[in-house]
Design goal:
The protein has 15 helices and 21 strands. The chain is of the alpha/beta class. It has a domain of 307 residues: FAD/NAD(P)-binding domain (3-Layer(bba) Sandwich). The strands form 5 sheets. Strands 1, 2, 3, 4, 5, 6, 7, 18 and 19 form a 9-stranded mixed β-sheet that branches. A 5-stranded parallel β-sheet has the order 8-17-9-10-13. A 3-stranded antiparallel β-sheet has the order 14-15-16, with no helix packed on it. Helix 1 links the parallel strand 2 and strand 3. Helix 1 packs parallel to helix 13, helix 8 packs antiparallel against helix 9 and helix 13 runs parallel beside helix 15. It binds 3-acetylpyridine adenine dinucleotide (N01). 3-acetylpyridine adenine dinucleotide (N01) binds next to helix 5.
Length: 545
């Protein structure tokens, strides 16, 4: 700290000097803060735009919000005591319970004293001469830090489509990712909901149960498998407590950070009857495990077609009105090539007399009037519009900050044609900046807490290594970035994932966004090995000085 420093506050000329700054206080930010503060003893703060911890689970309070990872794997595993102390109540944790959990963790480890809430980072500029990041917030504060870690989430920049006339709408409208804390009362209201991704599929049944009428505007039909959520039994809770360590180990050994493994058998080598039995059992069991019943489901179109066909038949058997069933089951992409939703009574909801479906693929939304949503064919009067229209995923939360590396080069320019980094962790030209679950890492293709803990641990170990060796700067080498970007593309192209043309994995949901498959699809287990090898080889691919 310089001579001008106020030693009581750590402030220098109005700016706060720290060893490290973490942006975000969701799952990732909380753990990263804990690692840097309590393991390394750094002076560190987290800045959080919201007024509380929770990230995704702080913002996404829409009706029906629930996780699709099962609760016994959707938590931190760094502390055996913590795993013993916390007990989930349902198979899939709901938003309110996850938020309680994250507050419990933040209090348990006394993290809130180092989190500054209501602080949105607007810019982060690297000063090469000082080897420091200068970080500014919307609230006018400045921080000067050696290490900057973004823990801003992958799905945190809401996408409200620019539909003409929205400003004239006389009713209320909400995006699911910015849901009012006090909730929304749908009683006696005509509701129009745009979007049928995981969010819309979760929200529709809950809104329909309360609203006078719900009209769902579907652009791309989607698969969904029943979640089969249930309260956990005392026996299962006991099992989790007794086997927490084994469960943790297992989640480190799977492709996607889940407890279940993808089965070895192939759909194309299984008889029709047996396949049907397997799919039916998976449908009854419910959840994301559906995609794990055949190993070739995500790599062979022929195999995938068998799963797709099964689900489409299920939709047509559940939805009574044949026209509605046809629109819902007219799905144009392989199963699980877009993030596969799981639901509670989603397709059944269309059998309610107060629910209707509008196909906005054949008759697109043109504008919003004072009193409703207008497609090319009709005007649908509504009192409330719910935008379940997703996010500017993965790159959006990073690019909405003005991040500039060496020589003032802007991240948005470096990523003009799509994200380019090394291991999803560092961008060449942006020294000492780490991106937790950044594009190019498994992140959204993995059970998030598993991906987050691996990243935060790796970053912590890396900084510890630097301190031990007296090193001040780490930066991804351009050639390592080239190789990694090629690797990310190559592993994605070995799967069917890039075939879903409207997927946010590809950035296709945001007009003008470059279409690049963003997450690393080679599997969490392989990714973990790669990161370990890189560290063991003295951080191969990084320049340390
Ligand atoms: O967003 P989405 P989401 N006019 O982008 C439609 C995670 N998540 O919030 O497909 C009309 O998937 C869009 O149509 P199309 C999970 O990773 C997890 O639902 O672009 N429609 C699509 O139907 C998930 O994948 C959980 O043609 C428009 C929908 O809006 C991710 O978050 C729960 C439109 C957006 O779907 C995002 O899910 C919820 C327009 N102008 C979310 N613009 C769980 O853990 C967009 N759409 C269970």
């Amino acid at each position: 700290m310089s001579e001008l420093a106020d030693t009581r506050t750590g402030k220098v000329g109005g700016a706060t000097e720290l060893d490290a700054l973490v942006i975000g206080a969701g799952f990732a930010g909380l753990y990263q803060l804990l690692c840097l503060r309590d393991r390394l003893g750094l002076s560190v703060k987290a800045l959080e735009a919201g007024s509380g911890v929770g990230g995704t689970w702080y913002w996404n309070r829409y009706p029906g919000a629930r996780c699709d990872s099962e609760s016994h794997v959707y938590w931190y595993t760094f502390s055996p005591e913590l795993m013993r102390e916390w007990e989930w109540s349902e198979r899939y944790p709901g938003q309110a319970e996850i938020l309680r959990y994250l507050n419990f963790v933040a209090d348990r480890f006394d993290l809130k004293r180092d989190i500054q809430f209501n602080s949105r980072v607007t810019s982060a500029h690297y000063d090469a001469a000082a080897n420091r990041w200068r970080v500014s917030t919307e609230q006018g504060e400045t921080f000067i830090v050696k290490f900057l870690v973004t823990a801003v989430g992958c799905l945190s920049t809401a996408n409200v489509p620019k539909i003409p006339g929205l400003q004239d709408f006389k009713g209320d409208w909400y995006h699911t990712g910015h849901w009012p804390h006090e909730g929304v009362d749908f009683t006696d209201k005509r509701v129009g909901m745009i979007g049928t991704g995981s969010t819309g599929i979760q929200a529709a049944p809950v809104i329909a149960a309360q609203a006078k009428h719900l009209t769902v505007f579907q652009r791309t039909a989607n698969y969904s498998v029943p979640a089969r959520n249930v309260p956990l039994t005392a026996d299962f809770k006991q099992y989790v407590k007794q086997n927490a360590e084994e469960i943790r180990t297992a989640t480190h050994q799977t492709y996607n950070g889940m407890f279940f493994k993808v089965d070895d058998r192939k759909a194309v080598e299984t008889s029709l009857e047996e396949r049907e039995t397997i799919y039916e059992a998976a449908w009854q069991r419910g959840g994301l495990q559906f995609r794990a019943v055949f190993q070739d489901m995500l790599v062979s179109k022929q195999a995938n077609d068998t799963a797709a066909d099964f689900i489409k038949r299920k939709i047509r058997s559940i939805v009574k009105d044949p026209k509605t069933a046809a629109i819902l089951s007219d799905i144009d992409h392989p199963y699980a090539a877009k993030r596969p939703p799981i639901d509670t009574d989603y397709f059944e909801t269309y059998n309610r007399p107060n629910v209707s479906l509008v196909d906005v693929k054949t008759s697109p939304i043109q504008r919003i009037s004072e009193s409703g949503i207008c497609t090319t064919e009709a005007e649908y009067p509504v009192d409330i519009i719910v935008f379940a229209t997703g996010f500017d995923a993965m790159t959006g939360p990073l690019l909405r900050m003005d991040i500039r590396g060496r020589d003032g080069v802007a991240l948005k320019d470096v990523w003009e044609a799509g994200p380019r980094n090394y291991l999803g962790l560092q961008v060449a030209g942006f020294p000492n900046l780490f991106t937790v679950t950044g594009p190019g890492s498994p992140s959204v293709l993995c059970n998030m807490p598993v991906a987050i803990e691996q990243h935060a641990d790796w970053i912590t170990d890396c900084i510890a290594h630097m301190r031990a060796k007296g090193l001040a700067r780490i930066e991804a080498r351009p050639e390592a970035v080239e190789k990694w970007v090629a690797e990310v593309n190559e592993v994605a192209n070995r799967t069917l994932l890039p075939q879903a043309k409207h997927s946010w994995y590809l950035g296709a949901n945001i007009p003008g966004k470059p279409r690049v498959f963003m997450p690393y699809a080679g599997g969490m287990i392989r990714y973990r090995e790669i990161c370990q090898e890189v560290a063991a080889r003295s951080y191969e691919g990084f320049a340390l000085s």
